[in-house]
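A further point concerns the way the authors explain their paired sequence and structure data. Each protein is reduced to its one-letter sequence and a matching series of backbone shape codes. An entry of this sort, consisting of the sequence and the corresponding backbone structure tokens, reads as follows:
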Amino acid sequence: MIIFLYGPDTYRSRKKLNEIIEHYKEIHKSGLNLRYFLGQDLDFQDFKNEFQQTPMLKERKLFVLIDSFLNSEFKKRFLEELKSNKKFWLDTDKILLFYETTTIAKNDSLFSFLKKTAKCQEFKLLEVQELKNWVKKELENLKAKIEEKALNKLIDFLGNNLWQMANEIKKLVSFKNGQIIREKDVELLVKPEIESDIFETIDAIASKNKKRALELFKNHLDQGDSPLYLFSMINFQFRNLLIVKDLLKRNLSVYALSGLHPYVVKKSYSLSRKFEFSELKKIYQRIFEMDLIIKTGKIEPETALDLLITEI
């Protein structure tokens, strides 16, 4: 069985990924047969060896492959193996979960195979009405209400960045403590999605100015931004840098093909010149690894942020 989660809305795709993993853990409580394989470091032979081993405690195995589309060698080997022994790889006693946060070319061979074979779910960016419905649902879950003007203002400020939207909704609900959220509340508490300070933070990281980067992160925390939200923003910005760097590398139009806001393109273009493409991929993957470590409770988010800055 193969599951394929992909698309630019990484908030909803990550939520779906977590739901699948949590459901798996509820059934297979030992956790001994859950395996993660991460993007660029994914070695096909290691993966194959794990795949063909008999599961412990007679549990079903779940293999989570994160951003494997970044690894051209893995894709090549995997597709070759499928041609020679398709039944082996589609073993119903094992689950292959491809989770992709990067931009995928529609003519990619692995993408074509997964679209035909896997249980696919694409997470597109929400349109305005879908976004409004999503915000209302989140507020209902928190037993809170918002006036229409405030809802429109919130969407104007944040667009479809659901990572920041979820963070700001919780902040507004806490502030109002059961009262209806008004437009003035949004104007008071919510910062627009396109912020110069997050680019300043990334710029400090790119310039290897760790002291300045740590100061900026502390400022974010002092302003009430959660460490997990900061991780999401860092992930979001480095993902943008990867997209821009890749298009530049291939001499393609960044403004036409990136799908990013022109302001983001302009800032990302400048920052991307401070990194090699291979360096960006390693940083992006390390951010993802840190995020998983945080979510499994192995490290505190603030400590992870400090370590990430130090490592970069």
